[in-house]
Write a structure and sequence with these properties.
Chain B: GO terms for molecular function: kinase activity. The complex is a heterodimer of chains A (224) and B (509). Chain A is α/β, with parallel strands linked by helices. Helix content of chain A is 47%, strand content 12%. Chain A contains 10 helices and 5 strands, in the order βαβαβαβαβαααααα. Chain B contains 19 helices and 5 strands. The chains are: A alpha/beta (224), B alpha+beta (509). At the A-B interface, helix 6, helix 7 and helix 8 of A face strand 1, strand 2 and helix 19 of B.
Amino acid sequence: MNNAPDNGAGRTVRVVIVDDHTIFRSGLKADLDARMDVVGEAGTVEQAIAVIVETRPEVVLLDVHLPGGLGGGGREVIAGSAALLGTTSFLALSVSDAAEDVVSVIRAGARGYVTKTISGKEISDAVMRVADGDAVFSPRLAGFVLDAFGTAPADIADDELDKLSARELEVMRLIARGYSYKEVAKELFISIKTVETHVSAVLRKLQLSSRHELTKWAAERRLL
Amino acid sequence: MTTAVQRPTLVRSSDRMIAGVCSGLADHLGWPVKLVRLGMILACFAGGAGVAFYAWLWTMVPTADENAKRNARRPASPIAPAVSLPPVPADSVGITTAPKTYDAGPVPAAFGGPSAAGGPGGSSATGGTTGPAGARPASGINASGDWWGGSALASWFSFRKIQYGKEILLGAALLLVAAILIARQFGVDVPLGTLIPAAAILGGAAIAWMQLDETRRAGLVDKTKADQAGGWVRLAAGLALVVAGVLVMVSGSGSWEQTWLALLASVAVLGGVALVLLPWGLKFWKDLESERAGRVRETERAEIAAHLHDSVLQTLALIQRRAGSEQDVVRLARAQERELRAWLFSDAAKEAGRLAERIKSIAAEVEDSHGHAVEVVTVGDTDMTDRHEALVQAAREAMLNAARHGGGTVSVYLESADGSAEIFIKDRGPGFNLDAVPDDRLGVKESIIGRMKRHGGTAVINSSSDGTEVRLALPSANADAGDQRNSEPARNSEPARNSEPMRNGEAKR
């Protein structure tokens, strides 16, 4: 559902795959197209941190649920590689599209997430997008954002981290409706880059906001 | 110090005069049977010590048959350790094996044998039951017992401490009794009036604690931290209180001062008893708790197993049989995933009967019947009314169309709050021209557009070569006509603006 960015052609992205299922890792490796170069794999939290520090990839495809470590899964991997967050981007993978599984890794620093049922083309596009520093939002994550931030646009008086602007709301709504970035851009008469900027802004708010609904949500799941 | 292990087990023999005690004892000790019988008869004249000893052995020592039955088990009787010793081959019975083994220890063959195995029992039986009259004949055995107790106790204890600790304690106590009786014989003044109640209380507490078997006691000691200083202090305090309380009670009589003391003593006794029983209460409570938790776990496990069997295992079997058809496999897998997810994560009681849940179940139904994935995203929720039922039916028709003609994943987005609702159904099919749809086709015009209009909502269909999107909007029931008109012109404008005027209107209300 996300289209490949136009500037993605002609370069390869170094990728590390972190997932505890060997079958899934090899399948994903085969699915990724020629723009990706898989430089490492890991199956546990400890392995993942070691491989990421050693290979310094541009993108880490990170399973949300991982054995090892303190039981924190993907969140713990991101926390353990925090020093590399500037150069390495994390794209969360999950069997479930449920916000519960994913928002914790997003808030830990992941740039987006995709479900494991996604096609090879879609996941390759998502990896390229993350490598370019943009965010990858699935319809359900957009739905969660709308749920958490509310569907009313921010007033000037509001803390800007705690509410979405009218334009960001429009973008989120369209993504929740299943629009690709390109379709969103066409629908709103803006460029894809602008759409990406809006999505990144929403991601930042999702990561940094202390909005009541978000903190309550996180506290209920003991993510704080 | 493995002398006892080498000796034949002490059992009542089938070769018998009365109960097979003497021949069994002779076998066990490696003595001639006649000698044992003669000794027993002689002992009978010594104040009846022999009779008591015989009766005691008769009661406590099993026959050879009984012994075979409970061979491998722990000693059932705490005061007959020899009974539980491993059986030895029949050909190694007798005197030939005995001297060799005695070399290992400082015990002379003649006395070491009987005392090591029968020491605690034998000496105590005579010393304890016969009293002053029987003290002298018993002293022979006593002497050997004391001697054994003095020299070999330490090493024996270290070997057998865990296994026979309480038997040894009992033996030592009985030896002490015998020693006191002998001391009285020699005219030493022993304060029996103080010793007897103290011994009774100590014995009672000891017996109470002995009822717990080894492992339970270990667990209890562990649980109550009785192995730490605090635990011992508590226990000692309890016992001291019990003893003091009873002694004061016994000695008290008459005046109110003493009554007051007695009252104090009773309280002390009760406190002491409570202190002693505390670990038990704790233990039983914990046992009960863990048993209950175990039962709950078991029930949960059974329920999960039953559910997985009915759902996941059946689906996996189906998938194996349909492995050739990719669409069937995908459909089965998606349906199973949906079902499992609902079972694992959703709170049925909370969400049942509301709009989001209805839309999800409709989407699942469409997905099952057409094999195309239907992704549902919901924001907010609202209660169902007749109007919302119409909205759901219109959405169902739109989903069916999308699955039938669209192909690929169908995206459904529901946004609702306070009775108003918007649903977007998007597919990625080749699209169609609404005006070109003939009037006799009821699907789109009647089931979707007409139905929404009748219930005060709107339906907009946007179709292009990239796909089709159906937008259904239902304002809340108390919305005034202006709001509905407001959303009408939005039909041909861009979709995001489409929903804004209405939302703003609601926000102002």
